[in-house]
Amino acid sequence: MAKLLLVAHGARLRGWAAAARDDYLARMPRGYAVQLAQRVPRGARVVALDEHGRELSSAQFAAQLARWAGEQAAIAFVVGGPDGLDAETKRAADFLLRLSSLTLPHALAQVVLAVLRPGVPVFEAMGIVSLVALAANGTCLALLWKHRAEDVNMSSVWECSRNDIASNAAVFVAAGAVWLTQTGWPDLMVGFALACLLLRSAASVSARALRELRAGAVTA
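The structure assignment produced for this chain is given below.
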């Protein structure tokens, strides 16, 4: 298990910043142990945060962190105080990382670093919630089945319930894929597919409502 250390120079964070940092650090995926440290331990890879460092996307940061974890047991992220890090610390670092082109306050830099962690959805919760929702929505769909073609209102309700079933099943599949891959990509892919499905249903219901509205106007 790789150990990730956050070594922050300067004054202690205010309550809101410390709470935000700790909340995101607690969401680290399996395989990483996170702790706050006063100094960099011997043998650790040192990643210093600096405005002149290399800027990475979230995906690049996750991939880079995985490579570091495979090479060294401890990775120390060093955050400077209000005036940044001294030149000696930056020269001794193994990697200079820039979180943003913006100049971030000391407290916000710690929060952003925590947010960039390669998070993985909690697949256990995904699976349990999706199965419970699937049972509830399945019951609703069964009750609506014989009314699905009565009018645009019932058709819309039935289509929404059908989409709920598809969403629940897809989330359950995504939970299994997250468990297998230990990444968040299956969750993102399923979310995109569900968004397309819901947009298609919305367009279909809207088109039928317009047809009925025009037919009613002609009859009147």
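Interim note for the steering committee: The chain has two domains: 2-115, 123-219. The helical segments are 15-25, 58-71, 87-92, 106-115, 123-144, 152-181, 185-219.
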